[in-house]
Amino acid sequence: MKVKKLILGFYSVNCYVVTLQAGDEDFCFIIDPGADFNSIKEYLTSEKIYPEFILNSHGHYDHIAAVPELQDYYEIPFYINEDEEPLLKDPEKNMSSLLGSNTLLLKTYTLIDKNVERNLNKMGIIIHKTPGHTPGSISIEAGDNLFTGDLLFRGGAGRTDLPGGDQSLLVKSLAAVKSLDKNFIINPGHGATTTLENEINNNFYMSNEFLKGGGQWF
How far apart are the first and last CA of the chain? Predict the structure, then answer.
């Protein structure tokens, strides 16, 4: 398994190009291509990689902005949790009307239902529903890596004051992630890579004080 992190755009989103083995062959997919299509394409070209699909942690503009260009160029599907569909259709909810110079509406996407999830599982990809930052945020497990989007960061946690945010759900999602294998490498949507063990030991937002207190920020 290979994970390449590309830090893209004004908001420094972490886009990941993940290569996994399925049977005797490798395949590649892209997580959270939030900006700068050309940088993503240049990396794929340099590595002679052709992506099979795009899989997003959530639907905010800074995570989806390069999706349409990638879809058009590579003719690949884009997967996102079904609870994120309202964000794809509404520039205010996906925040492109606030963060970008142009509003962004996505018309071509595949919602992750049980059949899609089953197919992803066969590829070695496990979807964890981790709402809170947005209604349909997911964390993506592949091998010993967990891609947490804007749920869990090194030393921090996701915001809930944006459209669709829910603090109580975020707390439950953090608690659910805390119960996973502590050896997971945590690949967040922004910032440095870390480990689940490190966050459990050092991140206030993963502490029992915070989680059992219902998510009191201070």
Answer: 39
* Prediction pTM value: 0.94
Taking Cα atoms as reference points, which of 33, 43, 55 lies closest to residue 142? 55
In the chain, what are the domains?
A: 2-212 (3.60.15.10)
What token pair was written down for 78?
């884009």
Burial class (CB in 10 A: 0-12, 13-18, 19+), 212: exposed
Measure the CA–CA gap between 58 and 71, rounded to whole angstroms: 17
For tokens 């700068």, the residue is: 36
Instruction: Report the distance separating Cα 39 and Cα 136, nearest Å.
Output: 27
Q: What is the pLDDT of residues 28-38, one digit of tens each?
A: 999 999 999 99
Cβ atoms of 147 and 16 closer than 8 Å? yes
The CA distance from 60 to 92, in Å, is: 10
